[in-house]
Amino acid sequence: MKLMLATLRRDAVLAARNPGEWLNPLAFFLMVIVLFPLAVAPEPDFLSRIAGGVVWVAALLATLLSLDMLYRADVEDGSLELWHASGEPLYALALVKALLHWCISGLPLTLLSPLLAVMLHLPDSAYLALFLSLALGTPVLSLLGGVGAALTAGIGGGSLLLALLILPLYVPVLIFAAGAVYQASLGLPYTGELAMLGAMLSLALALTPWASSAALKLNGLR
Amino acid sequence: MTGTSKTQTLCLNAYDITCERDDRVLFERLAFQITGGELLQVVGPNGSGKTTLLRLLAGLNREFSGEVRWKGREIQSVYPEYARERLYQGHTVSVKKPLTAMENLRWLCAMESPGDEALEAALESVSLAGYEYTPCAQLSAGQQRRVGLARLVISQAPLWILDEPFTALDHAGIAWLEQQISHHIGHGGAVVITSHHALTEVSTQSELVLGGGV
Amino acid sequence: MWQQVVQFYNRFASPKWFYQQSSVWVTWLSAVAITGALTGLVWGLLFAPADYQQGNSFRIIYIHVPAALVAQSAYIMMAVSGAAYLIWQRKMAAWIARAIAPVGTAFCLIALVTGAIWGKPTWGTWWMWDARLTSMLVLLFLYFGVMALQQAIESSDVGYRAGAILSLVGLVNIPIIKYSVEWWNTLHQPATLKLTEKPSMHPDMLWPLLIMIGTAYVFLLLMIVLRTRNEILWHERKRQWLSKVLEF
Questions:
Q1: Would you call C188 an interface residue with chain B, using a CB distance cutoff of 8 Å?
Q2: Cβ-based contacts of B22 with chain C (< 8 Å)
Q3: Domain assignment present for C180
Q4: Which residues pair with B24 in a beta bridge?
């Protein structure tokens, strides 16, 4: 517990001193979204139909960018080994890391969502759906992504590999989250999709820390 | 050190340890014992499994056959307690460059949660007085290692397991570390170390040679 | 009873026992696979009646359906042997898991390609975002991930474990992926003709299909045994028993 709090504090300070690490993926996220109207068509009707999907695909990519660094530095400088040696369980570390990752990637994306909704002419009825789907869905991305980051942390140039491992696992989140926004933009109920996202979040909270912890233990065997 | 009464019970035993990695036998049927007031130096060429042996003694690696016991009990069965009583220092010191020396040391010693005075005193003992609030990016490699090694001063653990601790230290640093080790052993602690450096100050030491058969 | 299971497991986990016994299995599995494939294909392609809606193009199910089933089962088998390796640390389990991955990938590709070929005359396009085909595509990506991860890790011991962890995470995800893809499909555009869902199949159509499915599983087993033998040859290359066996 002591080490969990100390790590939260240490990594928060690190993020504050290295703002590029989490601001760059956010800027990337915004740029990707701007590219869609430029590449496809700026008509409001069309944009409002694809808005949910565009935001969510961009969110997946932005999440991946910041995931790669989640454990890499800690594996390289021995912090991970030190945590392992402290006797504190590694799944606690996995939870702390996922929480930190969500705070610097998923949370800002969620807070930015109303702005994006305006830019992409999302119908008023879908604002809340976009916000809620991001709030429930992005933590799942951080938790699942943590497993991939733990598996690839010791591999040189692992960021492309990480994308290959993790993107297929993101499919259900993408489908239900973008589906919720789509339903909402048609004025249909979307609580079912949000409930699915909530269920996935609970499942990910319960299971992914164990998988991450098993993957982190492998780093010592290399 | 909490007291000399522990000296008799302090005992790390290894029985019949065999470790295989990627179809290659690193070491076979190792057996040894270290008690309080003793130092064991593990030597051997690169790739002979020194780090693997140390990680295994520290309880970080379970991929071996045989048994390691601490005070007569298998280490995994008493793990959280064993983790508090032994200090493991891998060959990298986990120092984050954007953080100051104090912030780094505070995290390194999070389990002991010492006060700021204790941290400052530890940094002073590794001759980093005046650098407490300097970001480690501005320190030299040797100074960064000293920040990491300052946790030896704070730790209460009777068993130290140190992997190549002398790397990148200057003469003064080496002398300081040797003195720490002999002080620790003089107070009834036990030390397992891998190093190419011969320790002159410690009299009660034994040597374990790995990789003889390869 | 339980003791016998443990005994069998211990024997099965011994590379030497597996290598020596499996040469006989290879003969039998090959014989069954060849007979099954010939019977199933001749019956299915030449004698089974044509479908009243799809004509002769439906006959591709004799390849497509077995491949799709085997591709999914192979993933489950891979994850289960990976789990066995993580729990009991017997290397045979890791070698079997590694042996399965490329075979499963190949079946996955066959299912996708035959699905596309069937789509051209039926839907008029090579690719429709049909729920089953889409899940199959995601499964292919899952296989790619496991193989890419194992390949990127230099230490084989670590690679086996990493692959096992990833395939277990994938295994938990597969039902969720399937469900979500089906839901997504009904939300957007349900395909009118399904490749596999038949209210009732004529026995002359069904029997060859069952034979082909059985044959595909036998073939999967055969490939696993052959590839596991290769893994044993490689990993045990320095052992004495192997050089003794190979002398004869």
A1: no
A2: 155-157
A3: yes
A4: B21
